[in-house]
Amino acid sequence: MKKVTIIGAGIGGLTTAIALKQKGFEVEIFENSEKFVEAGSGINLAINAMQIYKRLGVYEDIKSEASYTESMNACTPKLERLVSANFSKFEKKYGVKTFAIHRARLHKILVEHIGNVKIYLNKKLSHLEEKEGIVTLYFEDGTSHRSEIVIGADGIHSAVRKSRFSNTALRDAEQVCWRGISNAKVQYNYRNELNEAWGNGTRFGFVPISKSEIYWFALINKNKFTTKDIDLLKTFSDYDKTVKNIIQATPKDKILCNEIWDLKPLKHWYSGNVCLLGDSAHATTPNMGQGAVQAIESAMALSICLAEEKTTADAFRRYQKIRKDKANYIVKTSWMIGKMAQSDNSIVCFLRNILTRFTPKFLAEKQSDKTFRLNY
Ligand SMILES: Cc1cc2nc3c(=O)[nH]c(=O)nc-3n(C[C@H](O)[C@H](O)[C@H](O)COP(=O)(O)OP(=O)(O)OC[C@H]3O[C@@H](n4cnc5c(N)ncnc54)[C@H](O)[C@@H]3O)c2cc1C
Fold first, then answer.
1. Mutate to test the pocket of ligand 1, among 29, 43, 51 (most ligand atoms within 8 A of CB)
2. What is the Å distance from ligand 1's center to 11 Cα?
3. How far is the CA of 31 from the centre of ligand 1 (A)?
4. Which residue has its alpha carbon closest to ligand 1 atom 4?
5. Angle, in degrees to the nearest 10, between helices 291-308 and 11-22
6. Domain limits of the chain?
7. 184, 248 in Cβ contact below 8 A?
8. Is the dihedral of CA 262, 275, 372, 71 positive or negative?
9. Residue 69 near residue 99, CB atoms below 8 Å
10. Sign of the CA dihedral 99, 100, 101, 106?
């Protein structure tokens, strides 16, 4: 088996390392960070991700550190339900459940599962070159490294992508997201739900990630504020008291703030012996909670293709064929959901709420099944 070099030890890079290792590959990872710091937010792992983690033997470890999410609900700011997607039908069909987990705990579990894969920390890739099938990686500390197969799992601002692929464009969703982990006590009926409340140019979502922690996210349209040093309690003052309690019970210095961008779908995900995976290939807005889940799907698909195909070129071609349409569908659908959920036009908001309330159940289930189904 050939050696595979992965750039980036995020969810995509680590899951790829686990999958490749289990198929007998020698794997190494180069990661920009000096050490793994505890990222102060949570993440929802949908049924398609959990099917893969079950195949990789990681499912039970995640389950024991996470909180079960039985349904996802869209609500008004007062938490009156517009629509509810209950996952029990898909749990039976696919044999796994949805979980919400602290990102740091997920990261720790994945690192524990990579076995003896060497992770070189404090190694920021600057660029790479390929000559006669050998890829030379150049790092910002002045060192270099040679490899036969390189996977760029280095996120939305990927140095691998910038080195090898021209005409790529990031798109600004014009929304900013604040995230935190709260110790607020919420009503018992919220314990297995992800609730997302849609306002007018604002949105607030929350889901338990353990018995005592609520992961929350708050999105605000960029045209609604002038400084990111914003008073969230004031901005969400017309929301239900549960929302205000959650914000209040979060240490202010632990709140993260990110602008929301995605990557315009790429024509190609590979070039020569270099291939993109996760956000570097198909970064999406977070509106479907599918960014990392898609990275996990790509990790599994790429490992299967590399193990089963005779040449690297055949493996990359098959990987792109298996994964590109679905990843692009998620990027496109998530973008549209974000625009609808975050509209600041009162008439559009009114129509949005009526349409959401009366969306036929079979249509919503069809969309969920398309997202959860794996074809490899
Ligand atoms: C607000 C928000 C909420 C989200 N919620 C969800 C959710 O609920 N569910 C979900 O599935 N997804 C969610 N996502 C998306 C998810 O976070 C990403 O899709 C996922 O983290 C992508 O994983 P990745 O491994 O491809 O990239 P990243 O997580 O970005 O990891 C890239 C890694 O590469 C390293 N790196 C970067 N540059 C270099 C370099 N030059 N050299 C070496 N190393 C480098 C980085 O340090 C990092 O460790 C959310 C995103 C946002 C912004």
1. 43
2. 7
3. 13
4. 286
5. 30
6. 3-171+261-372
7. yes
8. negative
9. yes
10. positive
The pick from 154, 274, 302, 372 for probing ligand 1's pocket by mutation, whose C-beta has the most ligand atoms within 8 angstroms, reads 154
Residue 155 Cα to ligand 1 midpoint, Å, equals 5
Cα dihedral angle (260, 261, 262, 263), rounded to 10 degrees? -170
What span, in angstroms and rounded, lies between the C-alpha atoms of 337 and 364? 13
User: Which residue's CA is minimally distant from atom 6 of ligand 1?
Assistant: 289
Structure tokens at 184: 């607020």
Who contacts 212 (Cβ-Cβ below 8 Å, separation ≥6)? 183
Overall pTM surpassing 0.85 (yes/no): yes
The answer to whether the beta carbons of residues 201 and 220 sit under 8 Å apart is yes
How many angstroms does the Cα of residue 80 sit away from the middle of ligand 1?
Answer: 32
Q: 349: which 2 tokens?
A: 């908001």
Query: Is 285 strand, coil or helix?
Result: coil
Only one residue has tokens 């990630």, namely 209
Dist. CA 118 → ligand 1 center (Å):
20
Q: Ligand 1, residue 290: give the atom nearest the CA.
A: 11
Q: What is the pLDDT along the chain (376 residues), one digit of tens a residue?
A: 789 999 999 999 999 999 999 999 999 999 999 987 767 799 999 999 999 999 999 999 999 999 999 999 999 999 999 999 999 999 999 999 999 999 999 999 999 999 999 999 999 999 999 999 999 999 999 999 999 999 999 999 999 999 999 889 999 999 999 999 999 999 989 999 999 999 999 999 999 999 999 999 999 999 988 888 899 999 999 999 999 999 999 998 889 999 999 999 999 999 999 999 999 999 999 999 999 999 999 999 999 999 999 999 999 999 999 999 999 999 999 999 999 998 999 999 989 899 888 888 888 899 999 999 999 9
Q: Which residue, judged by its Cα, is nearest atom 50 of ligand 1?
A: 286
Pocket of ligand 1 (CB under 6 A): 7-13, 30-33, 43-44, 123-125, 153-155, 159, 177, 179, 217, 258, 278-279, 286, 289-293, 295
Assigned architecture for domain 3-171+261-372: 3-Layer(bba) Sandwich (3.50)
User: Measured between alpha carbons, how far is 188 from 359 in angstroms, rounded to an integer?
Assistant: 27
